[in-house]
Structure formats: C-alpha cells, structure tokens
Amino acid sequence: MSKDGSPTKTISDFEAGLAKADANVASFAKDDRNLFYMMRGFLRAHPTTIPTLVLIVSVIAFGIIAPRFLTPLALSTVLQQVTVTGIIAIAQTLIILTAGIDLSVGAVLVVTSLIMGNLAVHMGVPLPFAVIIGMFFGALMGWLNGVLVAVIKLPPFIVTLGTLSIFTALKLWYSGSESVRNADIVEKAPGLLWFGEAFRFGGAKLTYGSISLVVVAVLVWFLLNRTAWGRHVHAIGDDPDAARLSGIRTRRTLISVYVLAGAICGFAGWVAIGRVGSVSPISFETVNLGSITAVVIGGTSLFGGRASIMGSVLGALIVGVFNTGLSLAGVDDYWQLFAAGTLVIIAVALDQWLRRASQ
C-alpha cells in the first residue's frame, strides 16, 4: 500500500498499460523532393553551372547581334581585357570564402606594381628580385589586413576600407604622383612587359598574361580543393566557431588567406604592367568593384563557406563579354554599367535562394 492508501502498482501493471500504448514509431514529414527542389540542390552543389550557361548564352546572343563578336580575335581580346580583373577576382574569392571582403585589392595591386617598376627601372634592381620584393610587400599588406581581422577582430569591410585609404596614400607618396613611362621600361627592364607579349593561336591573339590567369586559377583551385589548408578555409567560412572547436587554428589560417590574397595581388601588379605598358599610381581604380562583381556573378556566396575559383574567372569573362558585346552593338557606356549592376543583383538574389536549399 502507498502512503495515501491506494494499492501499490506492480511491474506487471505497468507492462499491461504499456501493451495498450500506441506502438507506431514517431515519424517526421519529409520535404517534397520535387524537380524544383532537386534543381536548387544541384545548383548549390555545382556553383559554376549558372555562370557557364550565362557565358555561353551571352556569347551566342551578342554573336547574333554583332557577328564580329564571334571572331577568334574578338573573343581573345575579351580574355586579354579581363586578365587583371580575373586574377584579382581569384584573390577576392579567397577572402569572400571566409565571409569577408577586401576593398584594398586594387590599391595593393598598384603599390606592388609601383615597387616593381621603381626598383627595376630607376634603381637597377634585377627583375627577379624586383618582382619578388613587390610580391613580398603585397603579402605584407595582406598580412596587415589579416591581423586586423583575425586577431583584433575588426570587421573585414571596415578594415579593408581603412587600408584602402592608407595604401592609396602610400602609393601617391611613394610614386610622387609620377608614372613609370613605357619608354623607360622598354629600355631598362623590358621583362616587366613580358605578360603583355602576344602570340597567335589559330585566329586568336593570346598574351602570356591570359595564360597566367589560367595557371593561377588552377593552382588556387588545387589549394582549396585538394589540400588540408583548403578544407580548413572552407570550414572557417562555413562556421568559424565550429572550425575552432574541431581543432583548426582559425587565426593562423585566416591570416594565411589574406597573405596569399595579397601575394596574388602582387603578381597581378606584374601582369598589369605588361597589360598597360606602364606604371601609373592612378590606374586600375575600378578593379575593386570589378573583382567583387566577378566573384558574385561566378557563384561564390557572400556569406562564406561556398566558393568557386573557376566561377570567378567565368564571372570576369561574363562582365567582359557584356562590355565588349554591348560596345560592338553600339550601346552607350552607361548601359554597360547598368547591365553589370543588374547582373550583380541577380547573382546575389540567386545566392540567397540557393542558401535556402540547405536550410
């Protein structure tokens, strides 16, 4: 008997009550795996699909509007025009993959090109050393950004907005607002122009700078997709707290991302000299926004954790195709800017839609 006078229940009483209970296993409603849902999942898993399709369709469309556009010479010219932006976009992709953004990439490019130009032309430093020193300073500027973001914990947007102004001031001070002329480069350091040299391939006219874009893209793709470092970078971009708890050295890895991005910008500075033929402290002022545009159009998520190096290159090509195609079609420049802005908005909206596929 229990304290309140009621009979005490035995184990057999509980078993008898259990036998009357509902024996059905709890189940949860499954998402409707329709074609629309599967397509969204596929596009999220293969971010280069959409930029590839957009590039193909835009090339065909502009080829119909302006038949001259489909000539090998015109298409190779597009590739030459986006070479520098494409390399910078690769560096930008690394930063955006970690849920950051770098507004100083253009200033880093110009500073490093000025260092290379002045060392090789005005100071007589051998070309290999001038290039290495320039890329070192690019990595150093990237290191500064990385320390401020990873150690001081400042927002990447604010950090790189500040260093953009700092590096811009430094390039004007270092150069004395003067350019390194093409004639001086040709006379004293012609190797600086090597990436601008062209060769014929069928009916196309390619430059070594265009080839370098492909090489850099392949190397960075390999680092991100076939190395432990690349997996750590993806993990930090997806969830930095979970990455830290899993044993990843998030600070060191994040700083290394900014250092590598700065070194790539330094290399782009050398390519830019060959592309333009001279070194100017006021050149490539729009490459910051151009690189972000290429990265977003290429399928990299602005929220981190998902990126595509090849997609960023395709994004740069898409912008170049639109600009060249609209120009050949006789469209005014401001409509070219309008088209680029529209592409960015559509790409970000698509990214939001694809992010919901995993939620």
Provide tags for this entry.
transmembrane; 69% helix; ABC transporter permease; transmembrane transporter activity; ABC_transp_permease; two-stranded antiparallel ribbon; mainly alpha; 359 residues
Could you explain the architecture of this structure?
Strands 1-2 form a two-stranded antiparallel ribbon. The chain is an all-alpha fold and 359 residues long. It has a single domain, classed as ABC transporter involved in vitamin B12 uptake, BtuC, CATH 1.10.3470. It has helices spanning 11-19, 35-45, 49-65, 72-81, 83-97, 105-122, 127-150, 156-175, 182-188, 208-226, 228-238, 240-245, 250-276, 287-297, 309-328, 333-355, and strands spanning 198-201, 204-207. The radius of gyration is 27 Å and the shape is globular.
| Shape category | globular
Mind summarizing the main beta sheet?
A: 2 strands, antiparallel
Mean pLDDT: 87
Strand order of the largest sheet: 1-2
Q: Which stretches are low in confidence, meaning pLDDT under 50 for 5 or more residues running?
A: none
- Tally of individual domains: 1
CATH architecture verdict: Orthogonal Bundle
Q: Helical proportion?
A: 55-70%
CATH class: Mainly Alpha
The helix count comes to 16
**How widely separated are the two ends?**
54 Å
Order of helices and strands: HHHHHHHHHEEHHHHHHH
Number of strands: 2
Radius of gyration (CA) equals 27 Å
DSSP strand (E) fraction?
A: under 5%
